[in-house]
Amino acid sequence: MDADLEAILAESDSDDGLEGGGLSLEDILKEDGASSPLQEYRAPTTNEESYSARDWAVLQQILREDDDDDDVVPEPPVPESPVHHEKKPQAAPVGPVLWRGERLAPFALRERRLVAQNESIEASPLETKRRNRSKPIDLSRGATTSSEQKPSGALKVEPLKTASRQLAANARRPELGPGAPAALGASPKFVALGTSRGLALVFDHFQEVRRVLGTASSDSVRCVALEDDVACLGHASGTLILWDVVKGSQLRKVDDAFAVSVEKVEFCCRGASDRAVAAIDSSGVVNRIVFRQRVLGGSYLHEVECLLDAKSNVTPWLSVSSTYAAFSSTSASFVVAFAPSVRVAVTWPRPQSEVDNAVVSINDDGILIRAWGCDLDALNSTEEGAAVDFVPCTLPANAVALCVVARGVMILGRDDVLRLIDRKGRQLDAVSFSSDYIASTRDTVYALQGNELQQIEARSAQQRIASLVDAGEWLEALSSQVDAVGDDASESANAIDLLRRYVALAVANAPARRAATRQLDLARSHFKMLASVCVEFCIAVDVLDVLFDDVYHAFQKASRSDVYLDLLEPYILTDKLKRLAPEVLQAFVQRFRENGKLVNVERCMLHLDPTALDFNMLTRLLKTHRLHSATYRIYVEGLGDFVAPLEIALDACHEGVDVRHRGGQALLYARYCLEGLAFPSGTAVEPTTSVLWFLLRKKRPGSDQEYPHLSLLFTVDAQASLDLLSAHLLKRTSYDATVVVNPYDNVQSASVTPPSTDPPSSYFVDGPQAACDASTKKLFLAYLAAHAARGVLVPTQSLSEEVLRYLALEGRTDDVDATEDDLDAWASLPKCLRVLQPANVSTLQKEASAKGRSEASIILLEYEAARLLDSLASEKSLENRQRAAEAVSQTIKASLAHADLDVKKRAFAFITSSISSFLEKARRLDTTVAAAIRDALPALAQVDASQTAQVIANVLPDDVAGACQALAAKPSLQFVVLDELIRTDASVDDEERAVYVELLCDSAPHRVHAYLASHDGYDVEATLELCRRHRIDDATALLLEETGDGNGALDLILRGLGRRFEVLRDAARSKVELNEAEADLRASVSAATRLCSRRSEDHESRRAWFATLDALLEAQRSLKLSRELPSTASQVRAVARDLARSYLTAAADRVPLRDVVSKLFKDHPDATLGDFRDVLTSALAMSRVDAALYDAAATCQQQDQFSRRQKDAFFANRPRHVTHLDGRALRPLTEDDPPALHNHLALMGTAPDAELILTPFDPKDPLGPWQAHSYLPEDEESVQKREEYLRKLRARNIEGAWTKVKNPGYYNKYMDCEDDPAARMRLFAEEDPYKAVVPERERVPLPPRAPPGSLDAVAKFSASLPKGLIDGTLSSESEEEDASPFTAYVKRAAKSGE
Q1: 522, 624, 974, 1082: which could form a disulfide with 967 (CB 3.0–4.6 Å)?
Q2: How far apart are CA 520 and CA 512, in angstroms?
Q3: Positions of the region Disordered (predicted)?
Q4: Which residues, in sequence order, are bridge partners of residue 157?
Q5: Angle formed by the axes of helices 1317-1326 and 1304-1312, to 10°?
Q6: How far apart (Å, rounded) are the C-alpha atoms in residues 692 and 1188?
Q7: Rounded CA gap, 268 and 129, in Å?
């Protein structure tokens, strides 16, 4: 063999050249060192990669056990950008979350790697052949079809060359020949060709012309039917002729059945000596002709029976069986039954198709297959609605011919493609050819194109496979056999026989084995190819017994079992092969053990089905070779036993065998079981606690050690062991105090029925306590603290003391909200103190304080103080009082002495919570405890004065004076505390309020006025003196006003306006304290306006308002803003304008604006208009706003009047249903009543000289029933008339009368637009009955709003307002009549409207 061929084969043979070994257990456990990336292991989330980059080196070593190059995992590429495009192996299922216990992480990673789906299989020649060969195209409805299909060989096209040469010779002599082909017919014996000269050439299967039927004429043959040795020819003249093919004699001529050309004829049911045909002519007439022989060997007679006349528009296609005939019209397909009488059995409507004709086929069972256009379907004509073994499908092209064969249906389409479609709607094969005439018989179709005759055979699977085997195409034959078994399970026997023949042939013709050399071993490559083909074939056709028996033994005889066994591994790892025979399994393990690849064996065991293997042999193999992961899986999935594999592993550990690895794996396995995960795959299973019972066994056979298994696991990893117990305890919410004997104590697990309940809570305390030693004691105490705080474990008193001592000296002291699984947060000192409630922690507190654990010391002090307060609430003795007070004082001092501010503020929470708890049990706070808290107030106020005030209000509400006295040495703190107390409306005495006012004058003088205005209970004289001393003008003015000196108060404020304006100007210049200066000025003006507002409306009131205005103007003029910078002037003017606006707003209700304007010009004749610009602008703008408000109010009043008139008009014109007259009910009208009573009865004015007053029964429902009351004058004649009227009215017993409508036209229009309010408004506006009485007034037009500062626009606006509104020219009569300007304006507007 040349070098090129050897190089090509070398690429496909990857077995030679790699001798990689598996990773040992010691290598895996080395990952636990300082450089291991697994120290911070955690289970990946769904969005994370399953393997980190640092894990790839180890992963590649583990997975490099196969001899194939393709099985080595490549290193991950270095990403070029943050977007990760590298392809990594498929991740194994995630195991349980390991939140602690780092030493379990290597075991978890190893198990995940063992079950990782990283294996790939080199494509076998058989798989390649199956992938490349033609696949059936699914044509079922809704499926997507491909455009091309490779020939599959299901249709064999063979030209009939001899017959074609004969036809070609006839065509060369048209004047002497039989004529051009015009029809084609076929039977198993003969093929008949009808010609245009009325002849029929009958060929046998040797392609020789056996007989020429008929005589030459112009009556061409249009159709041919063959049956046995008889032929029936249909001519263009409508004649049917029955011929004996063997003798060449005419048996019967029928010329009375059809008047036009016969288009289709088929033989149908017959008797012993009778024959029958069904035929269709070109007009659509369908007849059945029965030929009867007179005597045996005699001549024939015929009978014609019409099946369908020409009215049905039958298309020229006919299918006949022994009992049925099927044909179609343009609207439906028909099935005609011949027995017991001729009848139409089924009418099948056409589908939605643009084609008007169909091709049909029917068998003896009445199954009709129809192709109408592109729609292919089937129907059971014998039983309506019965299922048919045929899947409807859509054809790629419209059908023109149809033939039913054994494998399905052959259909010729208009695209000149003959398709073979099986009963599942799949296109098995398709061949392209054109045809003029076509005929079919059984599984063969004959087609004629020109002078070329072809035979198309639909071959069965075995026929095709046999031909492939004869041609030496074994892979194609095996591939076809796989497809055949998939279609028909009975083909399995043929598949086994074919595989045995192939294996025998391949082994017999294998290349000879070469000596050890560096050249390619062709024999090995040959057997590797053979093994891959056999494995693929047996898996595909499910004949694994042959694979493990015949095939394996054939490889053994050829001394190539190593190739066979090596090839099984990738198929097992990809879950294609789920079982092995015992003999093969033992050889498989032995093969990989010899190569040092037992890790590969264990990976394979995790994929095999345990229930399909020899369990006893398998367990021996696993135990012998220490395949622990596989052992767990085999027991759990094979026997459903969770405890047995754990017992095997722990017993070996007790004997000192591989303690570290087996113990860690046992812990991981138990975690899987508790989490409801299968080990090691991680798939979901039913959680079990039987492993907990077993691990918590107190004794085991042959040992006196208590809790031996738990003690062993503590030596492996104590934290992981405790986490295992915590994983179960996290599912509990309470303590289980039941006492149950462990069924696994001192017995073998095989004799125990797994308990269905959980172990009692005491097991989770006693077991770990016995298992832990000095090195693991702290871990146990933290575990116990966490679950004790959760309330699921209850330790003994000694254990409680140990837990608290550990937490106080080394544990956590924070008290955060913890989730259920945050055990570290649960194991904190405050949580455990609340649950364990020790009797005395003073000694522990001193020890914590001595060790510098200040926070723990404070927590213990708080607990001890709260405990002593509870004792004091229960028993009030002197000793309890002193101890409680000392504890409270010591706790507060310790908290305040801490450097952390948050810890200092714990004192407030402690005081509030402890005293609140005390007051729930006692009626009042003990004085000794209150004194302790009061003494600590100064120190508390330095930390947070606001919270100190809350403490006083909540804890010392009855001793506010004492609390304030305690703070007297620090006035600033005293002020903040008092301020908070007053802000929260706490109970503060007058003495404390006086102190507060004094402190307020010192600390916040701008708030004095607000406080004095909203509170009372202070000494006016003393407070006045205090405010004068601190120069607080607004508060001084308020107090002067209270003493009756209103003028003095106002003068005091106004004298300071000029100074405050100067301060504002200076602040605007320097840009410093501008807001404070503005606030001070506004407060002074507000105080002045409030003083003026509280004056009564008299001459003194106006003088006060004018004095305030003068002071404002004088202060502004004295500033001389024209000399200032524009920015300074604009800021001051803005404040002055706003102050003027606020002043005028307050003065508008007291002083007419005309008086304000008049005073401006009278008192300041030498001033310019610019000096009063802000005041005038604000005054005019306010006048415009007031006028707009008045106008809006007048409009609202007008709308209300309009709506009221509308309602009055409706109620005045609508009829009222009167049900009672003078308190007596009226009966309904009947047909016996006179016609007058059926009209709307006019109760108004019916009685002479009487008045009927109508009132509704319910005043809130005027549309409901009404009642009438009559009134008459007092003279005797009127009384008699009234009595006579009422007597006649009551005699008729009238109930339910309607008053007449005064204006029926308006009322009817109003009711017609009941659902359209806008239409009602228009109707009322047009036909308002009150329009003449209350005319509409003209609205006063208002100009657009003037912009601020525009004097011209304001002047124009004021000129358009009603005269006298601003200029004061209203008549004295109007003012006397109504002093309100708004009322006067509305009346004047209404008067002008009239």
Answers
A1: 974
A2: 12
A3: 1-94, 125-160, 1368-1394
A4: 456
A5: 160
A6: 87
A7: 46
